[in-house]
From TrEMBL:
Species whose genome carries this gene: Pseudovibrio japonicus
Organism taxonomic ancestry: Bacteria, Pseudomonadati, Pseudomonadota, Alphaproteobacteria, Hyphomicrobiales
Gene3D superfamilies referenced in this protein's UniProt entry, alphabetically: 3.40.630.30
Protein name in the entry: N-acetyltransferase
Record carries keyword Plastid: no
Residues spanning the membrane: none
Length: 175
């Protein structure tokens, strides 16, 4: 399995993986399928903001999945915290692509100087929760019935990984 930075030529497959997750999983809390234009905008914004988009591919160059991270919340006090996403093709689930992508995102987040990496996971997705726990993520919150999809309420599990022991940034002094 090979990891690399995603390119625009990967977008049709990334779109296919994303839309399959929208249709079949409670991982993306929307019923709205995206267009190639939507994914292009997402891709451009992530790169413009300095965030990675990585893909895993097999020995034949077939995409197995993708991962990325971006801001957790927009206020400046969250500037050292990021939230990640990892999605793999249906046939790749449970075969290691998600693990490899998550491990690389953790490495990149550390290199980029982020302090905390957050996974926001559908609470019924025990596989993803276990995967995150194997990489040191801790369950730090359970939000009951904050989402809905497939005609049912969904609970959200927040898992966090502290990436470094950096001291807190200096306080901002208002004039």
């Amino acid at each position: 399995m090979k990891l690399r930075q995603a390119t625009k030529s990967d977008l049709p497959t990334i779109l296919e993986i994303h839309n399959d997750a929208v249709k079949t999983l409670a991982a993306i809390w929307t019923d709205a399928l995206e267009t190639l234009e939507d994914r292009q905008k997402w891709f451009d914004n992530r790169l413009a903001d300095g965030f990675p988009i990585i893909v895993a591919e097999d020995d034949n160059g077939e995409l197995l999945g993708y991962g990325s991270y971006g801001p957790f919340r927009e206020k400046s006090g969250y500037g050292k915290t990021i939230e990640h996403s990892v999605y793999v093709t249906p046939q790749s689930r449970g075969k290691g692509a998600g693990s490899v992508l998550l491990e690389k995102l953790i490495e990149l987040a550390k290199q980029d100087g982020h302090h905390v990496l957050i996974g926001a996971i559908d609470s019924e997705n025990k596989g993803s929760i276990s995967l995150h726990a194997r990489y040191g993520f801790k369950v730090t919150g359970e939000l009951p019935q904050v989402g809905f999809k497939f005609g049912r309420w969904l609970d959200l599990t927040l898992m966090t990984l502290i990436l470094n022991n950096d001291p807190a940034p200096d306080a901002y002094v208002h004039d």
